[in-house]
Amino acid sequence: MKAHRTAFLALICLAAPFAHRFLNAQATPDADDVTKEITGEIRDLRQVPDAQRGARTTEIALKIRALPAGGDKRKLATGFASYSTESDPGAAALQAVTTTLSQAIKEAPISMRNNRPGRPYMLLAKLVRFEGMTTDLKGPEIDRAQEILAQEEAEIQKTDFTLDALKGQKVQLSDLRGKVVVVNFWATWCPPCRKEMPDLDALHARFARQGLVVLSITQEDTAKVTPFISDMGYKSTVLFDPEGKVSDSFHVDDLPRNFIFDREGKLVAQSVNMLTERQLLAKLAKAGIH
């Protein structure tokens, strides 16, 4: 009897670690499930009211930061950084996103290809350069990303263009010296583009007497753009870049993008993504519009 009891206790002890792991597995969500949950939250971020956007953005950033290190985490952090700039979450929330992206890159770095860093590094560099965020990430990849952005800015600074406007006239950028110019790249199919257009138009009307000009450039055709603009009641100048040559010269790799030139034609500000009225006002102040 004692031998049977001893054998039974030994079996319990042997099984205990497996039972412990099983119970923990039942209590702890699978990493893939957590990732899917966060992906859904990012996708739904566009539906979150602007007043709640900052808190929700920070919450998601912290959830991503807590994920196990790896390529999936880095991809999620990169995609989230793109989504988080589609509104105005506030500087603190955007810094939380930037810190999360930095951490994800440090945990799962990517080697450069053809002397060009991957998208995570380029996006991080844009957040730092265009939005005033900070990062403690160091290394040749982030240094090269910053160098590329500086080179692109120098090329944009030298760019001039002449495009056809919706109303038929031609518009040349260099003819607008003496005015503050917002060069805006957009498309009818782009939700953040549509969201920022009323603010662009309102500020154009508000500061037109101070010399503000908004040039909204699209690669779409007049048949698609004309009814859209009419329905929206958009009054700012719409220009057509059918072959995307101007878009390429401005190194536009995502929509929307905004570039602000002062009265001397100097590029003084640009955006990672869409701009709200508050953000636009802050960037226009760099060009002397108040």
From TrEMBL:
Residues 1-21 form the signal peptide. It is found in: Cell envelope. This is Alkyl hydroperoxide reductase/ Thiol specific antioxidant/ Mal allergen. It comes from Terriglobus saanensis (strain ATCC BAA-1853 / DSM 23119 / SP1PR4). Keywords: Cytochrome c-type biogenesis, Disulfide bond, Redox-active center, Signal. Pfam families: AhpC-TSA. CDD domains: TlpA_like_family (cd02966). PANTHER family: THIOL:DISULFIDE INTERCHANGE PROTEIN DSBE.
